[in-house]
Structure formats: structure tokens, C-alpha cells
Amino acid sequence: MAHLLKLGISKLKQVKSHTNILSITFLLILFGIPAFACTRSVSEPKELTQEAIRFELTKIARETEIPAEISAQMIVPIITHTKQPTAIVFDATEPSSDIQITRMQPTENPEIVRIVPIQTLTPTAVVISSPVPRNTIPVELINPDVPIITPTEAVDILTQVTPTQTSINPDDLPPLEMVDKEKILYTTQNGDILEIIAHRFGTSISKITSIMPINTKGFLDPNIPLFIPYKNRSYLSGVKILPDEYIVFSNTASDYNIVQEIKKANGFLANYEEYTAEGLMQGSEIIYKVSRDFSINPIVLLSLLEYKSHWVYSNPRTTAEIDYPMGWIDSNHKGLYKQMTWAAGMLSTGFYGWRYGKFEEIPFFKNPKPGKPIYFEPSLNAGSVAIQYLFSQLYTWNEVEAAIYGENGYFSVFISLFGNVWEGYQQNPNGLNAHTSQIELSLPFSKFETWSMTGGPHAAWSTGSPAGAIDLAPSSSDHGCVESKSWIKAVAAGKVVRTSKGVVIVDSDGDGLEETGWVILYLHVATADRVAEGTIIPAGGNIGHPSCEGGAATGTHLHIARKFNGEWIPAFGPIPFVLSGWSVFEGENEYNGGMRRGNSVVIANPYGSQESLVRY
Predict the structure, then answer these.
(1) Is residue 13 left, alpha or beta, with left meaning phi > 0 and alpha meaning psi from -120 to 50?
(2) Residue 323 burial (CB < 10 Å; 0-12/13-18/19+)?
(3) Is the dihedral of CA 318, 322, 323, 329 positive or negative?
(4) Of 164, 145, 160, which is closest to residue 95 (Cα–Cα)?
(5) How far is CA 136 from CA 65, 131, 358, in A?
(6) Using CA atoms, how far apart are residues 611 and 477, in angstroms rounded to an integer?
(7) Quick one: pLDDT at residue 29?
(8) Any bridge partners for residue 235, and if so which?
(9) Statement: the pTM of the whole predicted model exceeds 0.90
(10) pLDDT surpassing 70 at residue 613
(11) Which CATH architecture is the domain 451-614 placed in?
């Protein structure tokens, strides 16, 4: 009776004799009719149409993902329609013209069984392509307009192929886990580092994918598409506010005449004067000094000043707007100069903190605080985060977005002053990217001298700037701020573009602009014998003598740092500070760390001990 079995039949047909026809007929009339009325005959073959197969496979493809390491030949979807499930080998692309599928009627409630790795039969007559992973290309849905091809003859599918056994060790297979439900497309920007991107999105480097090769270390080139798992968090607005070039002291400020523009605006600022540590200064001089010292764009400082207190084009309306024009109410920061240095510090904190992964969550200052953490939207550029960070110190969490993006918010004020700077914006191909490298630099002292590294990486300028500076001091039997006859030597050739008390700035890319290319800051340079502004200086030329001038210092030394396109560069990391082959490394805290060249190591020490000595 085995030849009577057909695909999908779970019982054998009974052979009936002529002598029992009457009795069988009577029994059917008595009991069979009610049974037929409520039950489908188990001896009737169940037909599985091509449409039904595609429907079931679509559901499976949406609910599971086949790991890329497992080929389609190793996986069989199991669809049970009766008490005895039958495995069906399928083609993931198009049905083979050599194989006909028995047309069966699906049950009312078919059971869907998830795909599992099993020992399968590998057909030799059918080529099965690998299925597409979920969320990469959508699974083809059933098109009701495509006619269903009905085979004319029912054929057992397994009789069409010659199976061969393939043994699979389950321990060798990766676990069948659901992939991230959603990934977003992020396009890289100048200044991006893959590790920092992963940190912002709350994921790991291993979960970030791209159709282009990417570096896992150092800066990335812009405009690289990355696919990153989405993390469900509460974010502030992801609308970009300003490009990075409008936050740092970059080429966007090179043609901006601060004094002339402030005078033309003819507001309160044009006639303002204030006594500072450097004497009486005009309002324009204060903006000029703060923007250059902190390397913050004067355009953003003026737009913030106009938004907060109407100083640029009109007049402050309250006493508070006169005393605290940036809105930071603190008696220790009274007056324009201190208010602007506070704002420049907050912008720097937000900009460099985002650039180098110092935070994700927004540190709102004012009460009430949000009930749960709110994060900076991870696709924002550093310049936009700088603005949001500043406003998070001035407004409560539920006021920030309106203050920035509202009809009369900061962004609207900026556009009214300087236009929409995003129109026609393109990332600078010579910006901070994978092709950026430090120019060759030498140690800043004579080849015949030995100096001490008295300070490892620490703030390049002040609050918020990255750890871009190191301290070096000449050998001396005296301690403290004493006069030194040693010369600070130029680490590279260039043009002296700015000097002030304790400060010498040298442009090293030949264009004579502080806002572009590589620029070197020499700080604590004595006024006596200091190189003059405008001087073209060769590598190894005399800059001046180390001292304590130009800022807080406990002893005679040189503070040296780098800028690129107006942006402070950390002394370690993607582009380490390298002087005559000595490469700077960081320590556990500011001023710790040292320099390394080959097998030689120098450890920073404020007292100039033996391990801190540096020589050519």
C-alpha cells in the first residue's frame, strides 16, 4: 500500500470490498454527513499554491535574518500544514523551470516554524542563491497582479533532484540573532573620528558599516556614508545651526573687519569702553582680543551679543543687559570682557568636547532639570553643538530649542545679520580629514642645549580648549620667574602674524594668515628681544626668551601649541605633536604624560628632574 501514499496525505486509503457496500453506505448516511459538515477530510490532499509559498516565505524573511556565513543551501524553511510536516526545498530567486510544485490547498491556520540550522539535503539540480539580509534590501512582497502559474501535474518535488548529505556542526554556526531593528545613514564630516562617532551614537565600531573603506584610527575623510544602529534616546533638535568654520577663528573671519563693522552698526558697542587688566579698551578691541586669544570667530560672538542684549545694532534695554550682556549672571563675570571670555570658553567646551568625545548628554545648568537624560543629536557637527552647549547653560531644558530655533531665536538673528551661511556650503577639502598631517617641526631651543619638559598635554589656551600645549623650560639653577638668556627657536619657518604681551603667533603655511593652515603659538615670551610682528622667520630663528609674561605661571618656561585652520589641535591623538622626532603622549591627568622617540622616553615633571630632560 505504500504506492498509495501521496504528498500531504497522513492516512492510508482503505481498500473496500463489494460485500460491504450496503453496510458502508448505511454507516456513511448515519454518521458521515454530520462529520463532513464540520471537518475537512484528512484523505484529501492539501494544495499549496505558489502564492501561499511566497506569502509564508515573506513572513519568515521579515521575522528572521539568515547570517551571512550560512548559505541558502544549508537552510530550509519548514512549513507545516498537516500533522506530518514536509520539508520543501525552495529557490530564493526564481522557481526552476525543471521543477513543478504540487498544488495544494493550505489549511485555515498554518503553523509557521522559524528557520533553524539543520542537516539538510543539498540539491545538485537546483542552484539556490543566498538570501538578502534583512534591512539591506527589502524582501520582495507578493504582487497580486502577477498571475499564479498552476502546474498541470502533481509531482513529488524531492524526486527531481539527487540529494547529497552535508554535515554541519552546530557549534560552528553563529547564533541566529535578530539584527538591529533600524539603522540610520550618517555622512561623515571634517573632524570626524570613527571611535568618537560610535561614542556619540551609543554603539561600537564593530556595529558600524559602510560601502566604502574607512579608517578605524585617526580623522576620516568627509562624505563617507556610514550605517549606524539607532539608539532610542531623547535628543535635542538635530537641525544644524552653524558650520564649524563660523565657530572657530577660520578663513570665514579673514576678511571681516571687526572695527569697521561695529562702527557701521552704530549700536551701543560702537561707543563702549571698559577698563581691563590691559588698561582701557574699546568694545571692538575687546571682541578682537577675545576672538584671537580663544580662536573663536568674531562673527559668532557679535551675533550672540546682539541676540542676548542688542549691543551691536541698538541698545541694551535693562541694567542686567548692560552688566551681563551675554546673560551669564555672575558677579565674577561682570562687564563685556569677562562676559565674552565666558562665552568663548563655553563655545570652546561644546565644540572640542563634541569633537573629541568628552560628552554625549547635555549638561543643563539651570533648574528645573529634565526628568531623564537628553542628548545632543549624534549627527550634529561640532559647531552646532557649541551653540547648543552655550544655550544649555543659559536656559532651562524646555526653553533651549525655542531660544535657538524659534521665530525670534538666535538662528533667526544670525541669518538677519550675516545671511544663511548654509546656502552653497561645501566642506573644505583641505579641512581636518584623513589627509591632514603635521608639518615638520623641530624642538624650540638650540641644538647645543638641554631643556626640561615641565608640563605634559594641557589646555592650549584657556577654558574649553583641548589639551594641545606642552611646557618646556631651559636649565637653570634658579627657580620661579627669573630672567633667561636662552633663546626660544622657531620650530618651523613662517611669518610672525601677531604679537602681544607674552604672545607670538607664527603662520607656517606661507599665506600670512592666522586663520588658515598650520599656526604655532609661543606663549610666555619676554617682551625684551621679542621678534617683531611681520617678520619672516626661518626654522631655528630667534623668537625671544622664555619668561612668565602673558598669563599665570610659576616659573620661567615656554608654552607651545598648534592650530590648524583656526582650530586648536590636541598634542596627542590623531595628529600627535612631534618635535624633532619626539612624539607627545598623554598622561592620566593634565600636565602629565611625556614624549617618546624610539626607545627613549621623557616624563614631564614641573621641577625639571632627570627624567624630564629633552635634547636633540
Answers:
(1) beta
(2) middle
(3) positive
(4) 160
(5) 11, 11, 33
(6) 17
(7) 45
(8) 375
(9) no
(10) yes
(11) Distorted Sandwich (2.70)
What is the C-alpha to C-alpha distance for residues 354 and 248, in angstroms, rounded to an integer?
Answer: 14
- The angle, 0 to 180 degrees and rounded to 10, between the axes of the packed helices 336-355 and 283-294 is 20
Helix (H, G, I), strand (E, B) or coil at 274: strand
First to last CA, the chain: 98
pLDDT at 156: 44
> Per residue in 28-54, pLDDT tens?
444 444 444 433 333 333 444 555 555
Q: List pLDDT tens digits, range 271-312.
A: 999 999 889 999 999 999 999 999 999 999 999 999 999 999
- Alpha carbons within 13 A on the beta-carbon side of 225: 7
Which cell numbers hold the place of 374? Answer: 537628553
Question: Averaging pLDDT over each range in 33-37, 426-430, 453-457, which range is the top one?
Answer: 453-457
Distance CA 445, CA 450 (A): 8
Half-sphere exposure of 289 (CA within 13 A, CB side): 18
Beta pairing class for 279-282 and 502-507? unpaired
pLDDT tens, residue by residue, 244-259 = 999 999 999 988 999 9
Give Cβ neighbours of residue 112 (< 8 Å, ≥ 6 apart).
56, 59, 60, 79
- Show me where the domains of the chain are located: 1-15+41-179, 183-229, 244-418, 451-614
Which one-letter DSSP state was computed for residue 557?
Answer: B
Q: How far is CA 398 from CA 3, 118, 498, in A?
A: 77, 55, 43
Q: Give the contacts of 253 (CB within 8 A, at least 6 positions apart).
A: 291, 297, 298, 299, 515, 566
CA distance 279 to 77: 83
User: Counting every residue, how long is the chain?
Assistant: 616
The rounded distance, in Å, linking the Cα atoms of 404 and 407 is 9
- State CA 170 to chain mean position distance: 37
Distances (CA, A) of 515 to 82, 122, 291, 414, 568: 77, 66, 11, 21, 11
In the three-class reduction of DSSP (H, G, I as helix; E, B as strand; rest coil), residue 69 is classed as coil
224: exposed, middle or buried (C-beta count within 10 Å: 0-12, 13-18, 19+)?
A: buried
Q: pLDDT grade, residue 56 (50/70/90)? A: low
Contact 205, 396 (CB under 8 A): no
* Amino acid at the residue 11: K
Phi, psi of 94 (to 5 degrees): -135, 150
Q: Side chain identity at 392, as an amino acid letter?
A: S
